[in-house]
């Protein structure tokens, strides 16, 4: 399979994690773009540029979005959609049931499991060793963190962040714009946007 040149939008922690995932998907990362870049900055052997002129002035580059924050990632997708690699990036160790649906612009990291008839919308991050069980749904621009579990028929809205190790009980509905803290347990529907933590979860802040 041919290897395509790409740049990564962003240069934080998620961008660094994305470098190897991109290359496992036959994408050669040549540079990163981040408005906070400093002069002559190098990350993992790649130069970091402070603006998007590299993309805007070239027809030979594509991009992937290396930003973990859901809202910023959504904005980057809207602004640079014509350049961004459309297909989902999947680690070879991820297990996807043949009946599962994964949308465009998604990133599926190592050791994840996506079960039968699960539905992952566009621009979603499913991070390392996360589990999306049978018939569960994850809405657009959401981020399922390391080791989190979304159990069977649970429904996660758009722009949600499910923290590391959190568990969403089977059949539970979580509305859009919700953050679930690390290692929390969600055993009841969440119908109001905000930040929820604990076992079981309780609302601690508005968004």
Could you walk me through the main structural features you see in this protein, from its secondary elements to its overall organization?
By secondary structure, this protein is α/β, with parallel strands linked by helices. Helices cover 13% and strands 32% of the residues. The strands form 4 sheets. Strands 6-9-12-15-18-21-23-24 form an 8-stranded mixed beta sheet, with helices on one face. Strands 7-10-13-16-19-22 form a 6-stranded parallel beta sheet, with no helix packed on it. A hairpin with a 4-residue loop joins β23 and β24. The protein is globular, with a radius of gyration of 17 Å.
Give a nutshell description of this structure.
With 207 residues, this protein is α/β, with parallel strands linked by helices.
Mean pLDDT: 93
Helix content: 10-25%
The main pleated sheet reads as: 8 strands, mixed
State the order of secondary-structure elements, H for helix, E for strand. Answer: EHEEEHEHEEEEEEEEEEEEEEEEEEE
Number of beta strands: 24
How far apart, in Å, are the first and last alpha carbons? Answer: 44 Å
Count helical runs.
3
Low-confidence stretches: none
Could you say which overall geometry the principal axes of the C-alpha atoms support? globular
Coarse structural class: alpha/beta
Q: What amount of the residues lies in strands?
A: 25-35%
Radius of gyration: 17 Å
- Strand order of the biggest β-sheet: 6-9-12-15-18-21-23-24
């Amino acid at each position: 399979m041919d290897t395509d040149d790409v740049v990564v939008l962003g240069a934080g922690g998620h961008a660094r994690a994305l470098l190897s995932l991109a290359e496992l998907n036959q994408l050669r990362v040549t540079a990163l773009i981040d408005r906070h870049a400093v002069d002559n900055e190098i990350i993992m052997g790649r130069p970091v540029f402070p603006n998007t002129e590299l993309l805007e002035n070239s027809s030979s580059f594509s991009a992937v979005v290396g930003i973990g924050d859901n809202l910023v990632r959504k904005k980057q997708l809207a602004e640079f959609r014509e350049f961004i690699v459309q297909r989902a990036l999947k680690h070879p160790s991820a297990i996807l049931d043949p009946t599962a649906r994964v949308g465009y612009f998604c990133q599926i990291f190592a050791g994840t499991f996506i079960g039968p008839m699960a539905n992952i919308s566009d621009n979603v991050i499913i991070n390392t060793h996360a589990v999306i069980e049978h018939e569960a749904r994850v809405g657009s621009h959401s981020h399922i963190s390391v080791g989190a579990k979304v159990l069977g028929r649970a429904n996660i809205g758009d722009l949600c962040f499910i923290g590391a190790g959190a568990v969403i009980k089977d059949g539970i509905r979580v509305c859009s714009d919700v953050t679930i803290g690390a290692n929390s347990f969600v055993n009841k529907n969440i119908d109001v946007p905000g930040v929820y933590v604990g076992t079981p979860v309780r609302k601690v802040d508005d968004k």
